[in-house]
Write a structure and sequence with these properties.
By secondary structure, the chain is an alpha+beta fold. It has three domains: 82 residues, Beta Barrel (OB fold (Dihydrolipoamide Acetyltransferase, E2P)), CATH 2.40.50; 53 residues, Dihydrolipoamide Transferase; 219 residues, Chloramphenicol Acetyltransferase (2-Layer Sandwich). Helix content is 27%, strand content 24%. Strands 9, 12, 15, 16, 17, 18 and 19 form a seven-stranded mixed beta sheet that branches. α5 crosses α6. The longest helix has 18 residues.
Length: 404
């Protein structure tokens, strides 16, 4: 019995997808629920699993093609899984030592970016030892393997290479043209749209994180033992932002045509950097969460964003966004709005700086904060007071518990 492998229903507002890579070839056996192919949309990578065990009879759509929901991708001949595909002629290599594949213990876990790197260098995933969680192979693992493989190319018995002096003609000039991924193209489109639509303005302040760092240091071990998750800085900033949004509802609002839509809930987007580009998973109802609930949700969202398994629903519907350029060393920046939201908070590096405290000059852990806001609906006074509210709560974390 033959089965058509079709493009599954796409997320709402997504009209088509790009076929990134096949993981099976014609004549190769597959097991039920095994991933056959990756489809890339504007935001997420969708995996298409095998509906039954069998053999790939034909592939209808090749890598790089654009597909829509319902398109036939391949034909599967249902039945017992075929053993091995016909052996391909071995490539002749000289002085090439290839490590024996490690013993297989089930499918090797890889992300789409890693699979692309493996295919580019004609490597089998079983040849690389994964250092990630549950044996997952990272890009660093592949690059480390390639370096080791290059260094093993020289036989001890080979004569030493003869040095031939040559005249340097300067560095080689070259270009490489690579099409944007759908995600990168979508990011570019949204950023340009935000620049052309909103009246963006940024206000800055600085915050002394002495008390937050002391509290985190004092309770982080107990917190992790009790809740099974680390106590990070982001939960302090998210909770402080929610309290400030309650005081200034227009900062939590959005523009729809000639209307201002005020939201009585607090769905906070947290910008996450992944191998595929920037993503902003949304954590919903942050006002109802404990610090532990928030940290657990953030860890889960960030992990799925990195693995490319996050859903479109997780990336839509936020009312306010927080981005942390400090993890990359940024001292100050002006973040761009994540439309249709009307404001975004930018965090930056924590640095010891001399500050005057009660008439004394002391070294304090300081961070510059930035809020970019849509001046069409938020006045400068509200934006400044909003940021001051966040500053006050972080400099006196007891306010977060008392909600004052």
């Amino acid at each position: 019995m033959t089965i058509e492998i079709k493009v599954p229903p796409l997320p709402e507002s997504v009209s088509d997808a790009t076929l990134v890579a096949w993981h099976k070839t014609v004549g190769e056996g597959v097991a039920r629920d095994e991933n056959l192919v990756d489809l890339e949309t504007d935001k997420v990578v969708l995996e298409v699993p095998a509906p039954a065990s069998g053999t790939i009879a034909s592939i209808v759509v090749e890598d790089g093609a654009t597909v829509v929901a319902g398109d036939v991708l391949a034909i599967l001949e249902e039945g017992e899984v075929a053993q091995a595909a016909p052996n391909k002629p071995e490539k002749k290599t000289e002085n090439k030592k290839t490590p024996a594949p490690r013993e297989k213990k089930g499918p090797v876990k890889t992300s789409p970016a890693v699979r692309h790197l493996l295919e580019e260098h004609d490597l089998d995933a079983t040849m690389v030892t994964g250092s990630g969680k549950d044996g997952r192979i990272t890009k660093a693992d592949v690059m480390s393997f390639l370096k080791k493989d290059d260094s093993s190319n020289v036989n001890p018995g080979d004569p030493a290479p003869v040095h031939v002096e040559s005249i340097s003609t300067g560095p080689e000039r070259s270009e490489k043209r690579v099409p944007m991924t759908r995600l990168r193209a979508r990011i570019a489109e949204r950023l340009v749209d935000a620049q052309q639509t909103a009246a963006m303005l940024t206000t800055f302040n600085e915050v002394d994180l002495t008390e937050v760092m002391a509290m985190r240091s004092r309770y982080k071990e107990t917190f992790e033992k009790k809740h099974g998750v680390r106590l990070g800085f982001m939960s302090f900033f998210a909770k402080a932002a929610v309290e400030a949004l309650k005081k200034f509802p227009v900062v939590n609002a959005s523009v729809e045509g000639a209307d201002i839509v005020y939201h009585n809930y607090f769905d906070i987007g947290i910008a996450v950097s992944s191998d595929r580009g920037l993503m902003v998973p949304v954590i919903r109802d942050v006002d109802q969460m404990s610090f532990a609930d928030f940290e657990s949700a953030l860890t889960d969202m960030a992990g799925r964003a990195q693995a490319g398994t996050i859903s479109m629903e997780d990336l839509t519907g936020g009312t306010f966004t927080i981005t942390n350029g400090g993890i990359f060393g940024s001292m100050m920046s002006t973040p761009i709005l994540n439309q249709p939201q009307s404001a975004i908070l930018g965090m930056h590096s924590i640095q010891q700086r001399p500050m005057v405290v009660d008439g004394e000059i002391l070294a304090r852990p300081m961070m510059y904060l930035a809020v970019t806001y849509d001046h069409r609906i938020i006045d400068g006074k509200e934006a400044v007071q909003f940021l001051v509210s966040i500053k006050e709560q972080l400099e006196d974390p007891g306010r977060l518990l008392l909600q004052v």
